[in-house]
Design brief:
Layout: E1 2-6, E2 12-19, E3 25-31, E4 34-42, E5 48-54, E6 57-65, E7 71-77, E8 80-88, E9 94-100, E10 103-111, E11 118-124, E12 127-135, E13 139-146, E14 149-158, E15 162-169, E16 194-202
Antiparallel strand pairs: 1-2, 2-3, 3-4, 4-5, 5-6, 6-7, 7-8, 8-9, 9-10, 10-11, 11-12, 12-13, 13-14, 14-15, 15-16
Subcellular location: Cytoplasm, Cytoskeleton, Flagellum axoneme
Region (Disordered): 1-27, 177-215
InterPro entries: MORN (IPR003409)
Length: 215
Protein backbone atom coordinates (compact mmCIF):
# COMPACT_ATOMS: atom_id res chain seq x y z
CA UNK A 1 0.00 0.00 0.00
CA UNK A 2 1.33 3.46 -0.87
CA UNK A 3 -0.06 6.88 -0.29
CA UNK A 4 1.89 9.88 -1.55
CA UNK A 5 3.57 11.71 -4.40
CA UNK A 6 4.46 10.15 -7.74
CA UNK A 7 6.32 11.41 -10.81
CA UNK A 8 5.00 11.51 -14.38
CA UNK A 9 6.07 7.88 -14.91
CA UNK A 10 3.93 6.85 -11.95
CA UNK A 11 6.94 6.00 -9.74
CA UNK A 12 6.91 6.91 -6.06
CA UNK A 13 8.66 10.28 -6.00
CA UNK A 14 8.56 12.95 -3.30
CA UNK A 15 6.93 12.36 0.08
CA UNK A 16 4.94 9.25 0.82
CA UNK A 17 3.86 6.57 3.28
CA UNK A 18 4.07 2.88 2.51
CA UNK A 19 3.14 -0.40 4.18
CA UNK A 20 5.27 -3.29 2.95
CA UNK A 21 3.92 -6.84 2.43
CA UNK A 22 5.93 -8.03 5.49
CA UNK A 23 4.20 -5.54 7.79
CA UNK A 24 7.05 -2.96 7.95
CA UNK A 25 6.17 0.68 7.26
CA UNK A 26 8.08 3.61 5.76
CA UNK A 27 7.30 7.29 5.86
CA UNK A 28 9.61 9.70 4.07
CA UNK A 29 10.93 10.76 0.71
CA UNK A 30 11.34 8.73 -2.46
CA UNK A 31 13.24 9.31 -5.66
CA UNK A 32 12.17 7.40 -8.77
CA UNK A 33 10.51 4.61 -6.82
CA UNK A 34 13.27 4.12 -4.20
CA UNK A 35 13.60 5.36 -0.61
CA UNK A 36 16.02 8.29 -0.92
CA UNK A 37 16.42 11.31 1.36
CA UNK A 38 15.11 11.40 4.91
CA UNK A 39 12.67 8.89 6.25
CA UNK A 40 11.52 6.67 9.11
CA UNK A 41 11.30 2.92 8.68
CA UNK A 42 9.46 0.86 11.32
CA UNK A 43 10.10 -2.87 11.42
CA UNK A 44 7.38 -5.29 12.45
CA UNK A 45 9.71 -6.66 15.18
CA UNK A 46 9.78 -3.27 16.94
CA UNK A 47 13.06 -1.96 15.49
CA UNK A 48 13.08 1.51 13.97
CA UNK A 49 15.43 3.51 11.73
CA UNK A 50 15.15 7.21 11.20
CA UNK A 51 17.64 9.06 9.01
CA UNK A 52 19.09 9.29 5.53
CA UNK A 53 18.47 6.86 2.68
CA UNK A 54 20.00 6.45 -0.74
CA UNK A 55 18.38 4.08 -3.23
CA UNK A 56 16.61 1.99 -0.56
CA UNK A 57 19.74 1.72 1.63
CA UNK A 58 20.55 3.43 4.93
CA UNK A 59 23.20 5.90 3.80
CA UNK A 60 24.28 9.14 5.49
CA UNK A 61 23.34 9.92 9.07
CA UNK A 62 20.75 8.00 11.00
CA UNK A 63 19.62 6.45 14.26
CA UNK A 64 18.69 2.77 14.56
CA UNK A 65 16.75 1.48 17.58
CA UNK A 66 17.16 -2.31 17.87
CA UNK A 67 14.51 -4.65 19.34
CA UNK A 68 16.75 -5.51 22.35
CA UNK A 69 16.80 -1.86 23.45
CA UNK A 70 20.22 -1.05 22.04
CA UNK A 71 20.71 1.94 19.74
CA UNK A 72 23.19 3.22 17.16
CA UNK A 73 23.42 6.86 16.13
CA UNK A 74 25.92 7.86 13.47
CA UNK A 75 27.14 7.34 9.94
CA UNK A 76 25.88 4.70 7.50
CA UNK A 77 27.23 3.56 4.14
CA UNK A 78 25.19 1.14 1.99
CA UNK A 79 23.12 -0.19 4.93
CA UNK A 80 26.16 -0.68 7.19
CA UNK A 81 27.45 1.16 10.24
CA UNK A 82 30.47 2.92 8.76
CA UNK A 83 32.25 6.16 9.65
CA UNK A 84 31.71 7.64 13.10
CA UNK A 85 28.97 6.70 15.52
CA UNK A 86 27.84 5.91 19.03
CA UNK A 87 26.36 2.57 20.06
CA UNK A 88 24.46 2.11 23.32
CA UNK A 89 24.31 -1.62 24.11
CA UNK A 90 21.41 -3.40 25.81
CA UNK A 91 23.55 -3.92 28.96
CA UNK A 92 24.29 -0.17 29.25
CA UNK A 93 27.85 -0.28 27.83
CA UNK A 94 28.65 2.34 25.18
CA UNK A 95 31.07 2.59 22.27
CA UNK A 96 31.87 5.91 20.62
CA UNK A 97 34.21 6.01 17.67
CA UNK A 98 34.97 4.71 14.23
CA UNK A 99 33.15 1.93 12.38
CA UNK A 100 33.67 -0.08 9.20
CA UNK A 101 31.46 -2.82 7.80
CA UNK A 102 29.13 -2.80 10.86
CA UNK A 103 32.10 -3.41 13.24
CA UNK A 104 34.08 -1.22 15.65
CA UNK A 105 37.14 -0.40 13.56
CA UNK A 106 39.67 2.41 13.95
CA UNK A 107 39.88 4.59 17.06
CA UNK A 108 37.17 4.37 19.68
CA UNK A 109 36.20 4.44 23.34
CA UNK A 110 34.27 1.61 25.00
CA UNK A 111 32.80 2.25 28.45
CA UNK A 112 31.81 -0.70 30.66
CA UNK A 113 28.73 0.36 32.60
CA UNK A 114 29.12 -2.13 35.48
CA UNK A 115 32.67 -1.13 36.45
CA UNK A 116 32.98 2.33 34.91
CA UNK A 117 36.20 1.13 33.25
CA UNK A 118 37.02 2.52 29.84
CA UNK A 119 39.03 1.21 26.85
CA UNK A 120 40.40 4.07 24.76
CA UNK A 121 42.32 3.06 21.67
CA UNK A 122 42.51 1.02 18.52
CA UNK A 123 40.06 -1.57 17.15
CA UNK A 124 40.33 -4.01 14.25
CA UNK A 125 37.16 -5.73 12.97
CA UNK A 126 35.32 -5.34 16.27
CA UNK A 127 38.24 -6.49 18.46
CA UNK A 128 40.52 -4.44 20.73
CA UNK A 129 43.83 -4.39 18.87
CA UNK A 130 46.72 -1.89 18.80
CA UNK A 131 47.88 0.91 21.14
CA UNK A 132 45.35 1.71 23.88
CA UNK A 133 44.66 2.72 27.45
CA UNK A 134 42.45 0.79 29.82
CA UNK A 135 41.26 3.27 32.45
CA UNK A 136 39.96 2.02 35.82
CA UNK A 137 38.78 3.84 38.91
CA UNK A 138 42.18 4.63 40.48
CA UNK A 139 44.71 3.33 37.97
CA UNK A 140 45.09 2.73 34.27
CA UNK A 141 47.03 0.49 31.92
CA UNK A 142 48.82 1.85 28.87
CA UNK A 143 50.08 -0.61 26.27
CA UNK A 144 49.17 -2.63 23.23
CA UNK A 145 46.38 -5.12 22.67
CA UNK A 146 46.12 -8.13 20.39
CA UNK A 147 42.89 -10.10 19.92
CA UNK A 148 41.23 -8.23 22.78
CA UNK A 149 44.01 -8.94 25.31
CA UNK A 150 47.02 -6.86 26.40
CA UNK A 151 50.29 -8.19 25.01
CA UNK A 152 53.89 -6.97 25.09
CA UNK A 153 55.35 -3.92 26.87
CA UNK A 154 53.15 -1.63 28.88
CA UNK A 155 52.73 0.11 32.20
CA UNK A 156 50.21 0.55 34.97
CA UNK A 157 49.85 4.15 36.10
CA UNK A 158 48.55 4.63 39.66
CA UNK A 159 46.81 7.77 40.86
CA UNK A 160 49.14 7.85 43.88
CA UNK A 161 51.86 8.99 41.44
CA UNK A 162 53.88 5.93 40.48
CA UNK A 163 54.08 3.52 37.58
CA UNK A 164 54.70 -0.19 37.26
CA UNK A 165 56.45 -1.07 34.01
CA UNK A 166 56.54 -4.54 32.54
CA UNK A 167 55.12 -6.71 29.83
CA UNK A 168 52.31 -9.12 29.17
CA UNK A 169 53.75 -12.46 28.08
CA UNK A 170 51.86 -15.21 26.26
CA UNK A 171 52.33 -18.34 28.41
CA UNK A 172 53.82 -21.34 26.62
CA UNK A 173 51.40 -24.23 26.59
CA UNK A 174 52.95 -27.50 27.75
CA UNK A 175 51.33 -30.52 26.15
CA UNK A 176 51.17 -33.40 28.58
CA UNK A 177 52.12 -36.76 27.13
CA UNK A 178 49.29 -39.15 27.86
CA UNK A 179 50.07 -42.82 28.42
CA UNK A 180 46.88 -43.78 26.68
CA UNK A 181 45.79 -42.22 23.43
CA UNK A 182 42.90 -39.84 24.00
CA UNK A 183 39.98 -40.39 21.65
CA UNK A 184 39.57 -36.70 20.90
CA UNK A 185 42.11 -33.93 21.20
CA UNK A 186 40.52 -31.45 23.56
CA UNK A 187 40.78 -27.88 22.31
CA UNK A 188 43.35 -25.94 24.35
CA UNK A 189 41.82 -23.64 26.95
CA UNK A 190 42.28 -19.95 26.13
CA UNK A 191 45.36 -18.72 27.99
CA UNK A 192 45.52 -15.29 29.56
CA UNK A 193 48.74 -13.33 28.99
CA UNK A 194 50.70 -13.04 32.26
CA UNK A 195 51.97 -9.68 33.57
CA UNK A 196 55.69 -9.61 34.37
CA UNK A 197 56.95 -6.53 36.26
CA UNK A 198 60.29 -5.00 35.28
CA UNK A 199 60.43 -1.82 37.40
CA UNK A 200 58.49 0.73 39.39
CA UNK A 201 59.13 4.39 38.65
CA UNK A 202 57.72 7.84 39.14
CA UNK A 203 55.45 9.04 36.31
CA UNK A 204 57.10 8.88 32.86
CA UNK A 205 55.99 9.96 29.40
CA UNK A 206 56.34 6.49 27.76
CA UNK A 207 53.48 5.53 25.47
CA UNK A 208 52.82 2.50 23.24
CA UNK A 209 52.97 4.84 20.25
CA UNK A 210 56.71 5.34 20.95
CA UNK A 211 57.30 1.85 19.58
CA UNK A 212 55.37 2.29 16.36
CA UNK A 213 57.75 1.89 13.43
CA UNK A 214 58.35 5.18 11.63
CA UNK A 215 56.17 5.40 8.50
Amino acid sequence: EYEGDRNSEGERHGFGKARLPNGDTYEGTYERGLRSGRGTYRFKNGALYTGDYLENKKHGKGVFFYPDGSKYAGDWVHDQRQGYGEYLYANGDTYTGEWAGNKRHGQGTYVYKDTGSKYVGAWVNGIQEGPAELIHLNHRFKGRFLNGKPLGRGKFIFDIGCEQHGEYIEPVQVKEIEKEEEEEDEPPLPVEPKWKVSEITKLTPWSPHDEDPAP
